């Protein structure tokens, strides 16, 4: 059976051979913890962008990749855990001298993007479980769907600060869309390659 016809995420299929093992739950927890750590690490690579409170970070790339690799439920759980770590005061959010720290970050101008991470990971994971991450073109579509969820959350929330949709798009989308689409394409290139590394399971 080809990997293109198998339902499930990369993690599901990778652990499939050990589905009866007592270690599988621990491996799933470890995968979620790794996704949280990678999201937090990506947030530290921050570039301040003029004329907007939204910094450029690598977190959307990790959110989308984690969603695809872990699947919808675990991908979303990883992002919920990431937000919980930030709310608890751990230094996992993008460093900033202007944005509020800790739980207050969710109520600042970038809060909509953060709160959209679980939904974006879930959406990408759901599509990946249906095989969208096995081929480049459909993988790009899955990544862009996740990116759209992040933008929708970010712009919707930012409108409470800018008081206009146009201003929210100019500050929260326009400076980042080219780079974010590039991130989506990079993620889409990695996923089919990862599937190729998996041994073709027996029917």
Task: Name the descriptors.
Arp2/3 complex 21 kDa subunit ARPC3; 203 residues; 65% helix
Can you characterise this structure?
The protein is mainly α. It has a single domain, classed as Arp2/3 complex 21 kDa subunit ARPC3. The protein is 65% helix and 0% strand. It has 8 helices and no strands. Helix 2 packs antiparallel against helix 3 and helix 4 runs antiparallel to helix 5. It is globular, with a radius of gyration of 17 Å.
Category from helices, strands and their pairing: mainly alpha
How many strand units? 0
Q: What is the architecture at the second tier of CATH?
A: Orthogonal Bundle
Morphology call:
globular
Order of helices and strands: HHHHHHHH
Q: Averaged pLDDT, please?
A: 90
Q: How much beta, percentage-wise?
A: under 5%
Reading off the top of the CATH hierarchy, the class is best stated as Mainly Alpha
Helix content: 55-70%
For the termini, the CA-CA separation is 5 Å
């Amino acid at each position: 059976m080809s990997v293109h016809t198998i339902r499930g995420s990369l993690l599901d299929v990778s652990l499939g051979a050990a589905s009866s093992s007592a270690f599988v739950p621990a491996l799933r927890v470890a995968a979620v913890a790794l996704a949280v750590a990678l999201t937090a690490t990506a947030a530290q690579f921050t570039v301040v962008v003029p004329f907007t409170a939204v910094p450029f970070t690598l977190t959307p790339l990790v959110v989308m990749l984690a969603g695809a690799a872990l699947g919808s439920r675990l991908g979303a759980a990883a992002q919920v855990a990431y937000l919980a770590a930030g709310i608890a005061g751990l230094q996992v959010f993008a460093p900033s001298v202007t944005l509020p720290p800790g739980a207050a970050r969710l109520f600042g101008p970038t809060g909509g993007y953060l709160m959209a991470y679980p939904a974006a990971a879930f959406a990408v994971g759901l599509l990946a479980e249906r095989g969208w991450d096995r081929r480049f073109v459909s993988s790009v579509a899955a990544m862009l769907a996740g990116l759209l969820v992040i933008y929708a959350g970010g712009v919707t929330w930012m409108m409470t600060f800018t008081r206009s949709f146009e201003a929210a798009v100019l500050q929260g989308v326009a400076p980042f869309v080219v780079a974010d689409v590039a991130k989506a394409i990079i993620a889409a290139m990695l996923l089919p390659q990862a599937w190729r590394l998996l041994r073709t399971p027996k029917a």
